[in-house]
Prior knowledge:
Pfam families: MiaE. This is tRNA-(Ms[2]io[6]A)-hydroxylase. One of its GO terms (biological process) is tRNA modification. GO terms for molecular function: tRNA 2-(methylsulfanyl)-N(6)-isopentenyladenosine(37) hydroxylase activity. There is one protein chain. By secondary structure, the chain is mainly alpha-helical. The protein has one domain (2-133): Up-down Bundle (Ferritin), CATH 1.20.1260. Helix content is 72%, strand content 0%. The chain contains 6 helices and no strands. It has helices spanning 2-6, 11-37, 49-55, 64-87, 93-118, 126-133.
Amino acid sequence: MSLLYRYVDQPFLLSKMSQLAREELLHFEQVVALMESRGVAYQHLTASRYAEGLRRHLRSNDPERLIDVLIIGALIEARSCERFACLIPYLDEELAKFYRTLVKSEGRHFEDYLLLARQQTQNSIDERIAFCSA
């Protein structure tokens, strides 16, 4: 919710982030349904060390902080794409089909995050992307 109050002057950012959140929730619901249909119990997982490590690099003031949040979001989506794509050859047809849709969505999310980050500054964000990816 803090996004709504802090960036009320950026309707495109709010709209894109809202779309992304809805799509991620849909994916979560789809995963829960698949797990249930396969008799797999849901277990809460803690946040990944990867994401936690990336968040340590967040700068403290906007617009730099927002740029970092968006770049980190992009990197997390890119990593999801890579991991899902690696798994597809080992999955049954139903799961492989689902994972292919996830790869496509996560790739789109990666692009959206970078687009939003680039809109926050007149400067290149390439150095910051390289820093956060290292």
